[in-house]
Amino acid sequence: MLKNLFKKRDAKTDIFAPVNGEIVQLDEVPDPVFSQKMMGDGVAVKPSEGKVFAPTDGEVIQIPETKHAIGLRANDGTEILIHIGLETVSLEGEGFTVSVSTGDRVSTGQELMTFDLAYIRENASSDVTPIVITNAQETGKQYTMTNEKEGKAGETVIITSQDK
Question: How many domains does one find in the chain?
């Protein structure tokens, strides 16, 4: 009985869709930085509305001045980049409203930002939103991507991390 107390447990973390919409595989994203997984593996979502929610419990570690992306560190150490649309850095923050600050602790499903989806569709090359694990090589974890086709923010698991 005591043996079970000290047994190493497999730590598993679910990463939920941060936006509502159609899930697409990362290799289908029309940008080589994401489709060739230069920043890391993950999935993408074609958003159906302009709200971004925390995909897991963790800490906000990065918000660029242009507000087009947000970086989080999950409680298990996984670093997640949520990049709203493609070529959105050139919008210089226009159309984005961030609700959190770097250093804030967040909970799964908490609203992180809103964005004007119509404005993004009109002024960016794409509204597709990559969700990428940027430190997979350093974590010692195995990441599994979903096969789901539709994502509901805070409900649909899109990536699972597990100790190797």
Answer: 1
The more confident residue out of 23 and 6 is: 23
- Tell me whether residue 83 is one of the annotated catalytic residues: yes
Whole-angstrom distance, CA of residue 138 vs CA of residue 130: 20
pTM equals 0.92
pLDDT at residue 144 is higher than 50: yes
Domain membership flag for residue 6: no
Domain hosting residue 37, numbered range = 12-163
- Say which CATH number the domain at 136 has: 2.70.70.10
Q: Which pair of tokens denotes residue 43?
A: 């999935």
Q: Give me the catalytic one of 67, 68, 83, 141.
A: 83
